[in-house]
Amino acid sequence: MSTYLDFEQPILELEGKIEELKRLQDAEMDIAEEVARLSEKVERMLKATYGKLTPWQKVQVARHPSRPRCGAFINALVEDFTQLAGDKLYGEDAAIIGGIGCFHGRSVMVIGQERGHDLASRLKHNFGMPKPEGYRKAQRLMKMADHFGLPILTFVDTPGAYPGIGAEERGQAEAIARSIDIGLSVTVPFITTVIGEGGSGGAIALATGNRVLMLEHAVYSVISPEGCASILWRSAAEAETAAEALKITAQDLHRLGVIDEIVAEPLGGAHRHPTQAINTLKSALARHLDELAGEEAAVLKLQRQEKFLAMGRAA
């Protein structure tokens, strides 16, 4: 892992010592015992650190540049994936990728927000911030899935919908609202996973699933902590305070009934062991898809609508 977060500095120092010892190793110096001792200490520190992350620290983990992105999940989980492009109205938006493939022995429609993994890909995918044409592409694919009876899998990872003037001129708010409406109206199994950062309406446009899962260190919020802090405290420096108040962690949201399951991440976060994180999610998705596959179409639609209407409703 090339990038360490601020609160991981003690871990960085220990892992640096391990690497230095390995470089110094020669035929006359046995360092295996010392490396093993330091490695055990690193594991203990990771358990202690990641066992008590604050909401703001979880935001940093969710945004980690090495965290597996939507494309990595699709490539590992979906066989014979055929990407579909364009909204048939305006153009193609690379911030949302989607298409047909095979998961767990079933043909499925897969849709997700892609942030990119380096500067070039982040620019190509607009840092995972979709424009109206991206959401209208998602609408087209959800309708196609409903028509052909394909379960829908969505992967949410966006700081929010693109806020530019052009996006507003092309109907950003309407596109998001329409995506939510279609997502609530389809009659096929619909499973959403928040894999990183679920930001505002830009996230929920793809998240109206019968089951909503979150990776252990993902976050899901109506507004970013920085945006909330700028509004309430007139300073983005209060982002840590805002993150605490917003209840954006998977643990908070599961307790509040907003999500259905927390999917465990490897020790130290998904960015340390992406393959392990993806395989754990694969098992959870397969289990939920099996459970939903036997439900009637009308039941799936009604259950999904009641699920979201009940959120926030006073008892």
Describe the structure.
With about 325 residues, the protein is an alpha/beta fold. The chain folds into 2 domains: about 45 residues; about 250 residues, 2-enoyl-CoA Hydratase, Chain A, domain 1. The protein is built from 14 helices and 8 strands. Strands 1, 2, 3, 4, 5, 6, 7 and 8 form an 8-stranded mixed sheet that branches. Helix 3 crosses helix 11 and helix 6 packs parallel to helix 8. The radius of gyration is 21 Å and the shape is globular. The model has no long low-confidence stretch (mean pLDDT about 90).
Unreliable stretches, pLDDT < 50, 5 or more residues?
Answer: none
User: Which structural class fits the helix and strand makeup?
Assistant: alpha/beta
Any idea how many domains?
2
In CATH terms, what is the fold-level topology of the largest domain?
2-enoyl-CoA Hydratase, Chain A, domain 1
Tell me what the CATH architecture of the largest domain is: Alpha-Beta Complex
CATH class of the largest domain: Alpha Beta
Helices and strands in order:
Blueprint lengths: L8 H16 L7 H19 L4 H8 L7 H8 L1 E5 L12 E8 L2 E8 L5 H6 L7 H17 L3 E7 L6 H5 L2 H14 L4 E10 H5 L6 E5 L3 E3 L3 H8 L6 H8 L3 H7 L4 E3 L10 H20 L3 H13 L6
Parallel strand pairs: 3-4, 4-5, 5-6, 5-7, 6-8
Antiparallel strand pairs: 1-2, 2-3
